[in-house]
Amino acid sequence: MKGLIKITVLSIIAVAFVSCKKDSRPNYQFMPNMYESVGYETYSESDAFANGVEAQVPAEGTVARGYLPFDFDNTAEGYALAKTNLMSPLDSTQVDLAKGKELYDIYCGICHGNKGDGQGNLVKREKILGIPRYDDAGRAITEGSIYHTIYYGKNAMGSYANQLSEEERWHVVAYVLDLKAKLEK
C-alpha cells in the first residue's frame, strides 16, 4: 500500500512539472551577456575604442608573431645581394631532404618537374612555358637566390612565403640544391 502511495505522489509531481512547460514561452536565460554581446559599429566614436578607431597601425619596429624580418628587398639588387650573401641557417644535421622533397612535390614539382628539369605537368600540358632546368649554367642558382625566389617570387612565379614557414623554405632550398647536383652529374 505504501508503495502505491509513493508511485501516485511521484506521478502527480511528474504530471505537474510536465504540464507547466510551455513551448510558446522562451526559457530563462542565465547570464545572457555571454552569448548576446553588445554590438559596436566599426570605426565609430565610442568609448570602446581608443580615439574612435578600431583598426590601428602597429607600433613602429614591431614584428608579428611567428614572422622574422627578411633583410633583402624585392628588387634586382636585393636578389643579387641574397644570391651572394644569404646562407642557410640550418646545418647538415638539421636539413631534412625527405621533408624538402615532400614540400617540393606539393608546391614546386607541378611546374619545375620532380627532377628539377623544368618538365612539370603544367609545362608538359603547355599551360605555362619557359621553366628552366636547375643545372642551366646561365642561372648559377645558390641558396640565397632560391630562398629569395621562394620568398618573393620571380617573373611568372608567385611568392610562397605564406604557404611555407622559414624552416620549410630552407628544407626546400636544400632539396633544390640536391636536385641541381643530381642533374649536373
Mean pLDDT: 83
The overall strand count is 0
**Whole-angstrom Rg:** 32 Å
Look at the structure and name the CATH superfamily of the domain at 76-184: Cytochrome c-like domain
Terminal CA distance reads 100 Å
Helix content: 40-55%
Strand content: under 5%
CATH level-1 class of the domain at 76-184: Mainly Alpha
Largest sheet: none
- Helix-strand topology string: HHHHHHH
Q: What structural class do you assign from the helix and strand content? A: mainly alpha
The CATH architecture of the domain at 76-184 would be Orthogonal Bundle
CATH fold assignment of the domain at 76-184: Cytochrome Bc1 Complex, Chain D, domain 2
Parts with pLDDT < 50 across at least 5 consecutive residues:
none
Helical region count? 7
> How does the overall form come out from the CA principal axes?
elongated
Short summary of the structure?
The protein has 185 residues and is mainly alpha-helical.
What does this structure look like?
By secondary structure, this protein is mostly helical. The chain has a domain at 76-184: Cytochrome c-like domain (Cytochrome Bc1 Complex, Chain D, domain 2). Helices cover 41% and strands 0% of the residues. The chain is built from seven helices and no strands. It has helices at 2-19, 76-85, 97-107, 109-112, 121-124, 143-152, 166-184. Helix 2 runs antiparallel to helix 6, helix 3 crosses helix 7 (166-184) and helix 6 (143-152) crosses helix 7 (166-184).
